[in-house]
Structures are given as structure tokens and as C-alpha cells.
Amino acid sequence: MVVHNSETSNRPDSAVFAVEAGRLLRDRHCEDVVLLDVTGLSQVCDYVLIATGTSDRQMKSVADEVADYGDACSMHAFRKSVDTNATWIVVDFVTVVLHLFEPQRRAYYDLEDLWSDAKRVEVPAGSASSQS
Fold first, then answer.
1. What letter does residue 93 receive in the DSSP assignment?
2. Is the N end or the C end of the chain the one with fewer CB atoms within 10 Å?
3. Are 102 and 56 in contact (CB under 8 A)?
4. Where along the chain do its domains lie?
5. Positive/negative CA dihedral, 46, 52, 54, 60
6. Alpha helices, DSSP H only, in 1-132?
7. 80 near 62, Cβ under 8 Å?
8. Contact 59, 100 (CB under 8 A)
9. HEC sequence for 37-57
């Protein structure tokens, strides 16, 4: 369970979850972790979390671990989708949507450009597990 510090205690639960999930992605060696606040821009969610995985196996494992973390925080995954070759995994937590990509697939879809009007949210350095 996450212990909220003063930096995150005033944020809604979905924001806290999104930041901590970003830390977890970094802890599990995902690359180029980006958290976007799409509140007011998206009718679907409030936060988009994007990361690049190092292999299909790692991506599947990390997606499962973030889903488990969501369960522990009462941010249950509504749906998980994995493409045929596990080059893109989406985990939908309703207010937070996680996209895990292999590098070429991420460059192709370029979600950061799609959401270029979104505010980037810093995912502070430090281990997510040290916050639990």
C-alpha cells in the first residue's frame, strides 16, 4: 500500500495511483516513462501513462504487476488488451490508461504527439516499493 507524502496527499486517488504506477514501471526497467494529464482533453480518462518495455515477457510481467498494484489500491483494471505479438499492451483503470510498447510500435503510434496539449506530470525518482 502506498504511504502518501505531502507531494501527493492533495491529489485525487487516480493521480496518486498514476504517479506510483509510473515509479513501478521505472523500477521494473521500463524506458521513457511519460505521464500525461489529459483531464479536460479526453472524455475517456484523466491520465495516460506511457512506457517502453525491453521485451514482450517483461511487458506482460509489468502489466500484470501494475494491475496487481491497482487492485491493492482499489484502482482495479477494467480491461487489459495485448496485441498478437505483445508489442502493445493497454491496461485500462478507467481514470488512468497504461500503454506499454515495444520501441518501434511506440514510435509508430506516437501517443505523446497525439496528446501534445496534455500537461506532463513528473514521475519523481525513487522506488515505488520504498513508498509502500
1. -
2. N
3. yes
4. 13-123
5. positive
6. 13-27, 56-72, 103-109, 111-114
7. no
8. yes
9. ECECCECCCCEEEEEECCCHH
